[in-house]
Design brief:
It is built from 20 helices and twelve strands. By secondary structure, the protein is α/β, with parallel strands linked by helices.
């Protein structure tokens, strides 16, 4: 475990410390038990001393009970420590992700982050539990058992001193050979989880295109690869048991030979031989434990690196100590902005954008696919940072704002609308968790969502399934618009968010914007000219640059791109009629 991950132990330090202490006490009892058994045999039974047998027997029972209590308590505290550690790790990763910018999130796939928070943390949890329990137990058991063996028979102790290191090195060698395969397995787990996630999320598309067989084959290939890698690793690890058994039986035979001669010569008693055999088995089993823990640590090492990668990821955005916490108005200024997703030196998605929008204006943005329309508006709530120039909101550079304060005043309905499992009330209240039922219903009416909500049996208490798959695309868009309106923002951005609604509903939504939120700056990205035709100003984007800006009438006169789109859509509409 590295230091970065161990910081997550926090409030479970006490349990983490007490567990190995209790394990040590348990081991002490277990080491003394064979000695008492030897005394019962050699003194009590051989001399027929029943009183001694009863006395030592009661002491033996007491030690066994103490070993049981210490062991049970160590197991309980170890479970609390490891589970709490895993809980804190999940907490730390999840909270870390909340601080990520879009750029940080782009470094990891969703399936990879899910794997790190589940499988990888489970591996680290198990390794931690075995470390504080078994790794504390094994060395002490080996040392104490070896000392006790030396006091009884030095020749047998010498055998153990020879066998133990050889066995330990062999088992550690096996663990190291298996480690690379386990590392590769967890990388393939990401691919496997991503395949499953894509298939489940796109289930309707898969069925619509009858691609079930293809998806099954794709899943089968990844699953088979994971199986093969695990099989390779397990085949190597499987050598542990036979090597261990060979060492155990070899040592027992040697001990019986040495012990038998010693008993015949009178230098060792029967009870002592019995205790030596027990000590030898304890030493060998402890070595097996060490190897098992070492294997778990080797497996967890790959998971540790993957978790550390997330925890050490530096958020691209952070609040300044004197960050501005109030957005004065909805003014937006782009001052010679350049932007590249790859950062400095990368291909520019936005090139020298100079743009000034007054608070309360309705701004339309059109352009072909890949013209950087979405990139333009994503810089306003500082989802990404500019590569050059600056973006100002309310006259202040967005980099000087407290991120929460800025984004609280910039409502954004993205191209890919997302709803969460819960009722319609709960989904819309993402805009304001304290909003009353009446406020929720009001914004749904403004977003033209109330009419279809009233048709549901549960109305506003209707449950939305994961991803909003039980509502249509247009219904989902309107619910997301209602959610954004509930924030009462100073800036409202619709990134092609009315594409799935009919033109009449689109017009009603825009009319509601004009009448109900006149002071809010409204930016509407659309493919349909009708969605932006009545905007105060329309921006035409082309290849990351502003190709034209003005009203619809002005652009029809002096902008070829706008005129071409306008005529093609109007002609198409006339043909339809």
């Amino acid at each position: 475990m590295n230091r970065i991950l161990l910081r997550s132990v926090r409030e479970y330090k006490k349990e983490s410390f007490l567990t190995p202490v209790l394990v040590c006490l348990e081991v002490l009892m277990e080491v003394l038990i064979p000695l008492l058994m030897a005394r019962i045999i050699d003194v009590g039974i051989m001399e027929g001393n029943m009183a001694y047998i009863i006395k030592m027997g009661l002491l033996l029972i007491l030690m066994a009970m103490l070993a049981l209590v210490f062991g049970a308590k160590a197991g309980q505290l170890g479970a609390i420590a490891s589970s709490g550690y895993a809980k804190n790790l999940r907490h730390d990763i999840f909270y870390k992700i909340q601080d990520f910018s879009f750029g940080n999130i782009d470094h990891f796939s969703t399936s990879s982050l899910v794997t790190r928070m589940t499988t990888d943390i489970t591996n680290v949890q198990m390794a931690y539990m075995f470390t504080i329990r078994l790794l504390a137990r094994a060395p002490i058991m080996i040392v104490l058992s070896l000392i006790m063996t030396m006091t009884i028979s030095m020749p047998i102790a010498i055998v153990m001193l020879i066998v133990a290191p050889v066995l330990g090195v062999s088992l550690i060698f096996i663990a190291k050979k298996a480690h690379p395969h386990f590392v590769q397995v967890f990388d393939e787990y990401d691919v496997l989880n991503n395949t499953v996630q894509e298939n489940v999320n796109a289930a309707r598309v898969v069925k619509a295109y009858v691609r079930g067989d293809y998806e099954i084959e794709k899943f089968g290939k990844v699953s088979t690869l994971v199986f093969r890698l695990f099989t390779k690793a397990e085949k190597i690890v499987a050598w542990n048991a036979p090597i261990m058994q060979f060492a155990v039986y070899t040592v027992v035979i040697v001990m019986v030979l040495i012990g038998g001669e010693s008993i015949i010569s009178g230098s060792m008693q029967t009870g002592e031989l019995t205790s030596v055999i027990v000590y030898a088995l304890q030493i060998l089993m402890s070595l097996m434990m060490v190897t098992f823990v070492f294997t778990m640590i080797m497996i967890a090492e790959a998971s540790t690196d993957r978790i550390t990668e997330v925890l050490t990821e530096v958020p691209e955005m952070s609040d300044k100590a004197d960050a501005v916490t109030e957005v004065k108005n909805g003014d937006i200024d782009f001052e010679h902005v350049n932007f590249s997703y790859a950062g400095e030196g990368g291909n520019l998605s936005l090139k020298d954008v100079d743009l000034h929008i007054k608070s309360g204006q309705i701004v339309g943005v059109i352009g072909g696919t890949g013209s950087a329309k979405s990139t333009l508006v994503q810089l306003i709530p500082r989802l990404y940072d500019v590569t050059g120039g600056c973006v100002k909101v309310g006259g202040v550079d967005v980099r000087d704002y407290n991120l929460e304060a800025l984004r609280d005043q910039v409502s954004m309905v993205l191209q890919k609308n997302v709803l969460f499992t819960g009722s319609i009330y709960e989904n819309v209240r993402w805009g304001d968790e304290n909003a009353s039922d009446e406020e929720v219903q009001r914004v749904c009416k403004l977003a033209q969502a109330d009419s279809f909500i009233q048709e549901f049996p549960g109305k506003y208490n209707t449950m939305i399934v994961e991803g909003g798959n039980n509502v249509s695309g247009g219904q989902k868009q309107r619910l997301c618009i209602a959610r954004a309106l509930l924030k009462k923002p100073k800036i409202l951005i619709l990134d092609d968010s009315t594409s799935a609604v009919d033109t009449r509903t689109d017009a009603l939504i825009r009319q509601a914007f004009r009448e109900e939120i006149p002071d809010t700056t409204k930016i509407i990205i659309a493919q349909r000219i009708s969605s932006v035709e009545d905007a105060d100003v329309i921006i035409v984007m082309d290849n990351g640059e502003i190709n034209g800006i003005g009203t619809s009438e002005e652009l029809l006169k002096n902008n070829a791109i706008y005129r071409e789109v306008y005529e093609s859509q109007m002609k198409g509409g006339a043909d339809d009629e």
